[in-house]
Structures are given as C-alpha cells and as structure tokens.
Write the structure tokens for this entry.
Amino acid sequence: MYAPRFFVSMLGALAVFAIATYFLTQSLSTTLIETVICAVLLQIGYFLGVLYLVWKEQRARNALLNEDAAAMPMRDDDKVTGLHASNLNRSEPFNP
C-alpha cells in the first residue's frame, strides 16, 4: 500500500462520490458534508489497513526470531540481551 497511489485513488473516488451525491441530492452543502464524511472514513480505513500490515509483519518477525533462537544452541555463559548479530545482518524482503 503506497501512500501516493492511495491519495490519488482516494481523490478520484471522492470526486466520483461527490458528483454522484450532487446528482442525487441537488444540494451543494449536502454533497460537501457527505464527501468530507466519506474522506474521513477512507482515511480511517487506510490507517487500519496500515496498522494491520505492521502488526502482521511484527508477528512474522517474532516468529522468525523465535525459530532462530530455538535452533541455536545456547551456552551457559551467553547473555541474551537483544537480537543476535546474525539477525541484524539479514537481507530479507520486507514482506516475506
């Protein structure tokens, strides 16, 4: 989901929505109010979509880290204080 593409698509959808609303209601003020409400609802939907994608990516990364941690034998003198160095040098795609 790229933001510039979403905003251009959103403006196109809002323009079509505004034209259809104006032809249905024949009222400029009603058209303006309903178009603003539609724009707010689209923004809420976009925010929730991005939030879901971030949550899904975090869950996938945690599962990968847990899988790697289970595969690595731990010594008694090792201190686990964060990410292993092998996980920091990965060149994996953002969305696996």
User: Anything to note?
Assistant: The two ends are 15 Å apart (CA to CA). Helices lie at 3-25, 28-71, 85-88. Residues 28-71 form the longest helix (44 residues).
